[in-house]
Specification:
Layout: H1 3-13, H2 18-25, H3 29-36, H4 45-51, H5 53-81, H6 86-100, E1 109-112, H7 115-129, E2 136-142, H8 148-159, E3 170-171, H9 178-184, E4 189-194, H10 204-220
Parallel strand pairs: 2-3
Antiparallel strand pairs: 1-4, 2-4
Amino acid sequence: MNQFKKEALKLRRAGYSYTMIREKLGVSKSTLSNWLINIPFRPNREVIKKIGQAKLKSALYKQNMKFEDMARMKKEAAEEVGKLSKRDIFMLGIGLYIGEGSKAIEEIRIVNSDPIIIKLAIKWLKKFCKLEKKHFKIAIHGYPDHNINKLIAFWSKETDLLIEQFGKTIIDTRKNKSLFKKRKLPYGTAHLYVKSCGTLSPGIRSLHRKIMGWIKVSVSQI
């Protein structure tokens, strides 16, 4: 578990609101929602004092309704999706590559800020493209406020890739980008690449063409 998530869980259990946790950690509300979805909101004195009793009652009512709705949606989703077959996972990966993968240039690259997506991409490429751990390389795109070492440590832990498999971190130095983007993308954006390492047969370009073939055949049937 990363340090931001650990601290967010601690603050939520201590009775802090999403807004206050976001202000303390600089993490987006959507990320907090994913992390804290199963933790009931029991506001502490500081929160009650800040937002007032009337607003608090309204907030608690909305929170309870949200929990009930999420629990219902989760149950329905589990029933509708069911157990994924090997083919289901194969098609899921094709969809992922359509949305996040490099298509115009003959390289295998997937870009996303969500570790879940990057981990899924790695698993899919290993399973269906017969790649090994050594074939992957990551470059992180961050912002001036980011700690580069922490970014790399986070993505290394999430992906189970070695520090040596990380390329040069790119920092976006454009004006007025830093604070806004850091709050939205606390871990920057991961650019996952596939490298041949002299052992990948028939090669990156051929594998890319194969993936493009899967996409073309799939899309043509819709």
